[in-house]
Amino acid sequence: MEVSPVRPVVVVVGAGAAGTLVALHVCDAAVRAGQPLDLVLVDPAPEAGRGTAYGSRDPRHLLNTPVGAMSCRPDDPGHFRRWLCRHDEQVGDGDFVSRYRFGSYLGDTLGRAVIGARETVRVRRLRAEAVRCDWPDPAGRAALLLADGRLVHADRVVLATGPAEGGGWIPQELREAPGFLARPWQTGALDAVAAARDDVLLVGAGLTAVDLAMTLARPGRTVHAVSRTGLLPARHADVPLPPVPCPPGLTAERSPGRLRAAVARHLAGQRRESGDWRPAMDGLRPVVSRVWQGLGAAEKAELMAHGMTRWNTLRHRMPPATARTVQRLEATGGLRRHTGRISSVSPLETGSFATVLADGARLTTGWVVDCTGPGSETDAAPGSLWRSLLDSGLAVPGPLGLGVATEEGRLLDEQGTASRALHTLGAPRRGELWETTAIPEIRVQAAALADALVVSYR
Ligand SMILES: Cc1cc2nc3c(=O)[nH]c(=O)nc-3n(C[C@H](O)[C@H](O)[C@H](O)COP(=O)(O)OP(=O)(O)OC[C@H]3O[C@@H](n4cnc5c(N)ncnc54)[C@H](O)[C@@H]3O)c2cc1C
């Protein structure tokens, strides 16, 4: 691709929420700084802004974060609400709208940012998967190879590739069975199971499982959801109270046991005071990364082993409307929860699946859907972008194998040096930040990264 030597080139790999947020903030930052640049957005997906989370057209698939926390612009919390109101949806900051709407908002906001920056930023969109990244090439730049054979040279690369593919637990025989869905959010993945009537097993009982239960439930069908704790995500309050600041001592706590106890006390205290523990939980969210970074490797490992499941069910909550639907489904037998590990899932000759739980319970279902969530970049498949970065030592696994090692979003190489050219945000920063996978965190990272990228050329 032709590149002008005087215009730095920023390539953003991934046009999901994170890549879209970076791209729109780069446009804004370049205009503010009067810095001309070329911006290349690489993703095989047809639309920017959808990614895994915001492509579902089922209107029951709501954001699990209220409107007031989903603005693209961290310094303008009302931006998303105003966009919705301009598009005929009269909503307040505490409402939950469909995820599809949010994807449309991201795409539209990017489009406007691109138009606003057209004198300064030249934008290219390449619909392809990036499969390899080398740095530095003989000219000191990054070279990105796309699956279609094109080579893109860049001064800076932002790896906005989202959560790594999960499903490491899935045996090959199961993966290849026609009724097994490993990637339920892929476009069209649910069509066949939604059209059928036989029972479904959801492996996992988090937010994905809850959404799929709503989509797949129908008269005469039981949707089973199995997880180790059997717990569903907590629900948001009908009338949310504002977050309560974290108690001062808690952020300095370094012992996992005392940390767990301090969090439990804080939540219980708030429930006694206001009748609701959620404001205490929401007040912890901005300090989670600071607490995480203050812990040693052993303490992080201890927390991961004990306490994160409970944390996740309280932290990742379902909207009230979703909770009501799920309650109704459970009451009518449309959804049945099972607690415990799965001992085996075997495809049968009939096309169904026989599942045995650790307590001996047996289920026969027509479909099995993996809802266990993301895996790790370190398991990236041969021939993939992250595999190339890990194999060449430009990236190394993050603490406890969570994401990749980063320092303020720059990739750390095998010498522990922070890359000048390779950046990431969102899920790949889990090891550095722990709390990094949702929009309220990603938008702050995107805005800061865009400023840093633009300033680095001046
Ligand atoms: C079902 C679901 C619901 C959610 N709901 C919410 C919510 O309500 N609120 C909230 O704050 N968060 C929510 N989240 C969290 C969500 O992960 C983030 O909000 C956000 O969508 C993450 O965006 P991302 O761009 O990092 O990742 P993704 O959405 O996964 O996007 C990554 C993009 O990168 C592309 N890509 C990957 N590798 C390559 C490559 N090698 N070359 C080119 N392109 C590549 C992919 O095609 C994809 O388009 C939800 C997550 C899920 C799964």
TrEMBL record:
Coiled coil: none annotated. Residues 11-162 form the FAD-dependent urate hydroxylase HpyO/Asp monooxygenase CreE-like FAD/NAD(P)-binding domain. SUPFAM superfamilies: FAD/NAD(P)-binding domain, Nucleotide-binding domain. It holds the Pfam family NAD_binding_9. InterPro entries: FAD/NAD-bd_sf (IPR036188), HpyO/CreE_NAD-binding (IPR038732), L-asp_N-monooxygenase_NS-form (IPR052189). PANTHER family: BLR0577 PROTEIN. This is FAD/NAD(P)-binding protein. It comes from Streptomyces hazeniae.
